[in-house]
Amino acid sequence: MEERKLKNAAEAVIFASGTPVELSKIAQGLNIGMLQAVSICDGLVEEYAKAQRGIRIVRLNDSYQMCTAEEYADDIRAVMDIKRNSPLSQAASEVLAIIAYNQPVTKAFIEQVRGVDCSGVVSSLIARQLIEEKGRLELPGRPLVYGTTEHFLLCFNISSLDELPPLPNEEEQGDE
Q: Would you identify the CATH topology of the domain 90-167?
């Protein structure tokens, strides 16, 4: 299949999915190699960005998703009568940061770092689909471990956790 038809097919798959589509599924479905799939999907990301339209294709780790352009959020809310999500509380922001930078983590680890119970905050972050259960540790009581979701990446407009800003190192903290 020629390059343009492959791009069109990948675009159609990403659009039809409505959720992030793994690169491996695109490659398998289009009967192409992973490198060619990356080239095609990254090409689509660039084309949509250059076109300056209301729709974008974004990369989330090893998946791609079609979404609306950030600058039209207010217009979308107005037309669709969508209420603005309430911002994260200070506690939720702290818990989310602890999870994002240290994942996978247990609730006990989060509580040790923050010094307070965080059951309600963890539940609210799960409800907002920013974090999810990633399994259990092989320790007594088999505690749950939590990590961020692809929805977290989408909300914070990053492709992977590697794009999180670096934490200040201990030397910088000692100088202040």
A: Arc Repressor Mutant, subunit A (1.10.10)
